[in-house]
Write a structure and sequence with these properties.
It comes from Hymenobacter cyanobacteriorum. By secondary structure, the chain is of the alpha+beta class. Helix content is 41%, strand content 14%. The chain has 4 helices and 3 strands.
């Protein structure tokens, strides 16, 4: 369970990192689209931040993630310029690829191909089929 302090810092980092990647450092992506930031998780001491990036659009995800990791110091420096009035220390940024959207699409495809037969009807009952059976409370 994250504390309020961690949640506030994670929210601040998510907003500011999105601005940094889109406005301050667009040259990192060669004119392509900047990645979206899905989630930011901050450690309790606020020393590290795990940044989960959505890299669905814009080419090879692994290559883009490697570019971001290689330029981590530049990203952290640009982030520090933006949050220097708000945060005392800028956490170390660790970038991960968030593939939950791709996984959800994959699972949706699998569930869409399933053939589920209808449930068999019980022929032994003489009750009306229109009304659901009432549970018996007493014997």
């Amino acid at each position: 369970m994250e504390s309020k302090r961690q949640q506030k810092m994670a929210s601040l980092l998510q907003q500011e990192l999105a601005s940094v990647l889109q406005r301050d450092l667009p040259h990192l992506f060669g004119g392509g689209m900047a990645p979206g930031i899905s989630t930011v998780k901050v450690t309790p001491d606020l020393g590290q931040a795990r940044v989960y990036l959505s890299l669905l659009l814009g080419g090879d995800a692994e290559e883009r993630l490697a570019t971001i990791r290689d330029n981590g110091k530049e990203i952290r420096h640009a982030l520090a310029k933006r949050i220097r009035q708000t945060a005392r220390v800028v956490p170390e940024l660790i970038f991960f690829h968030d593939d939950s959207a791709a996984y959800a699409a994959h699972m949706d495809g699998i569930l869409g191909t399933l053939v589920i037969p209808p449930a068999p009807k019980d022929d032994a009952s003489d009750d009306d089929d229109d009304k659901p059976a009432r549970p018996r409370l007493f014997n």
